[in-house]
Amino acid sequence: MNSNKVIKITSPLNNAVIGEVPALSKAEVDQVIKQTKQASRQWAQTSLYERGEYLYKVADLLIKYNDELVNLLMKEVGKDRKSAKSEVLRTADLIRYTIETAKNIYGQAIPADIVEGAKKGRFAITSREPMGVVLAISPFNYPINLAISKIAPALMGGNTVVFKPATQGSLCGTFLKRLFNKAGLPDHVVSIVTGKGSEIGDYVVTHPDINFINFTGSTAIGKHIAKQVEMIPLLMELGGKDAAIVLEDADLELSASQIISGAFSYSGQRCTAIKRVLVLEDVADELISKMMNHIKKLKIGNPLDEENLDVVPLIDNSSADFVWGLIEDAKEKGATLLYGGKRDANLIQPTLFDFVTLDMRIAWEEPFGPVLPIIRVKSLEEAIEVANASEYGLQSSVFTVNLNKAFEVAKKLEVGTVQINNRTERGPDHLPFLGIKNSGVGVQGIAYSIESMTHIKSTVINL
Ligand code: NAP
Ligand code: G3H
After folding, report:
1. Which residues does 43 contact at the CB level (< 8 Å), separation at least 6?
2. Does residue 205 register a pLDDT over 80?
3. Residue 256 φ then ψ, to 5°
4. Other CB atoms closer than 10 Å to residue 382's CB: what's the count?
5. How far is Cα 24 from Cα 139, in angstroms, rounded to an integer?
6. Half-sphere exposure of 260 (CA within 13 A, CB side)
């Protein structure tokens, strides 16, 4: 692209400028989308085998350039080395499994003569067809994995892809695009558009050559996109307020360790982070004492200085300001600060509040930062009621040794996924992953993603 406007990308770890990306104009975006559209007919004609061969190369390249990419992930989105490495390796696996899965999705032959009067020898033969051009919009927090989790299944489904990375994450996105080039993918089968969502976003999502939108990001932007598009299928993974419900008979040591790692890894900048604890009064004190043991062991710092950290600087100062606002509000309204509550620029200490009440913002809002509220409840019914009163419906955890009880609670929770005796989390990547209510539309997870980004074609044969 010839764009002469650029966006400088600074690191959340030290504010250093680490690179720049073009800020495409609408005319340039239009050109990119048109080229991607033109490439779609030919790509749709390639065999599954051929698509898979290109993608296997991308998986191999991710491993080959692992070190470079890990360093970039650390600098651009502030991950510690271990998490960055895990994101890259997990993504290479995701690509391979996507290829294998796509090769094992078959159509059906459905006989017509199962209803009275229907002609014998009449069959509907179904196949999966591409949608055309998929717009993949990714968030900052998994710039590689949440890009590939859209791009790989879209490509295996025979679509071409316009990829719009989060601006903070677009150096990683550009790196990824280079790997597709190195893998020899035909021109314009995967295209990238960089530029601020606030400037080019509306233009991209409403472009007439976009046939499917696969978006991961905040609920506010997801809703904004959904309001603008007409007759374009959407797959959306949005915000969350995942609750960990701890019953009286729970293994409290397990619950405490899962809750603390679930809430604070990558400073809580995960859609699936545990974002509130609903604990039965009788076991609250014991659970909290165990949680305190775990929270004190969290490693906090700057990934440029130390390895294997849990709590790292947040993506930017305005995100830290938002989290800080939630902390101040909880303090003002009388929550008991058990731990943390300190801040140095965008590095916020892991913060734990007890006696959080339902009038506090932290009871309902998604911090996307390292602060965890504990809400004590009198009964299981109250826990379920509070859990379901959230606008969000991504995941919940239930901690109990009674499996029957766990299933009973799981059935009543209004979320896409319930984790029994585990922290809330997405992986492994082939499991269904979805949010209901304000947490999303549609289902991801390798097979589900391929199915979402293709449509059934039925050809009826009359023998
Ligand atoms: P975000 O601010 O909503 O941004 C997400 C993406 O949308 C970015 O690429 C952004 O580009 C783009 N965008 C912004 N305005 C747009 C517009 N008008 N039209 C089209 N695209 C637009 O989210 P984030 O801060 O990157 O990520 C954090 C949020 O994502 C949290 O709420 C988290 O829960 C959610 N999330 C959900 C999941 C899930 O699977 N459920 C996974 C990860 C994150 P710019 O960066 O250029 O603005
Ligand atoms: O941020 C949202 C991601 O989809 C969470 O993935 O549970 O594997 O960290 P994760």
Report:
1. 51, 130, 155, 158, 159, 160, 186, 189
2. yes
3. -65, -45
4. 15
5. 18
6. 24
> For 387, what's the count of Cα atoms within 13 Å in the CB-facing half-sphere?
31
Token pair for 207 = 């472009």
- pTM of the full predicted structure? 0.98
What is the Cα Rg of the chain in Å? 23
Q: Which ligand has the nearest atom to the CA of 236?
A: 1
- Of 364, 361, 316, 323, the closest CA to residue 341 belongs to 323
Task: State which of 174, 207, 221 you would mutate to test the pocket of ligand 1, scoring each by most atoms of that ligand within 8 A of its C-beta.
Answer: 221
Indicate left, alpha or beta for 186 from its phi (over 0: left) and psi (-120 to 50: alpha): beta
Nearest ligand to the CA of 7 is 1
The ligand that comes nearest to the alpha carbon of residue 397 is 2
Q: How far apart are CA 176 and CA 296, in angstroms?
A: 37
pLDDT tens-digit series, residues 169-199: 999 999 999 999 999 999 999 999 999 999 9
Active site residue 414: no
Q: Which of 82, 272, 310 to mutate to test the pocket of ligand 2 (most atoms within 8 A of CB)?
A: 272
Residue 433 carries which DSSP code? E
Ligand 2 centroid to Cα of residue 360, in Å, is: 26
For residue 368 and ligand 1, the question of a CB distance below 6 A is answered with: yes
Q: How far apart are CA 463 and CA 453, in angstroms?
A: 32
Indicate which residue's Cα is closest to atom 31 of ligand 1: 218
Ligand 1 center to residue 79 CA distance, Å? 18
| Closest to 158 measured CA to CA, from 134, 140, 122 | 134
Query: Treating both helix axes as pointing N-terminal to C-terminal, what angle do 81-102 and 66-77 enclose, rounded to 10 degrees?
Result: 120
Distance (angstroms) between ligand 2 centre and the Cα of 284 equals 27
- Residue for token pair 């101040």: 328
Pairing of strands 109-111, 122-130: antiparallel
Q: Tell me the helices (H) and strands (E) count for the chain, helix number first.
A: 14, 24
Q: pLDDT tens-digit profile of 263-300?
A: 999 999 999 999 999 999 999 999 999 999 999 999 99
Give the pLDDT confidence of 76-105 residue by residue, as tens digits.
Answer: 999 999 999 999 999 999 999 999 999 999
Would you place residue 424 in the very low, low, confident or very high pLDDT band (cuts 50, 70, 90)?
very high
The answer to whether 419 touches 400, Cβ cutoff 8 Å, is no
Beta strand extents in 73-185 (DSSP E only): 109-111, 122-130, 133-137, 160-164
Binding site membership of 172 for ligand 1 (Cβ less than 6 Å): no
Query: Which one is catalytic: 28, 237, 366, 425?
Result: 237
306 counts as catalytic: no
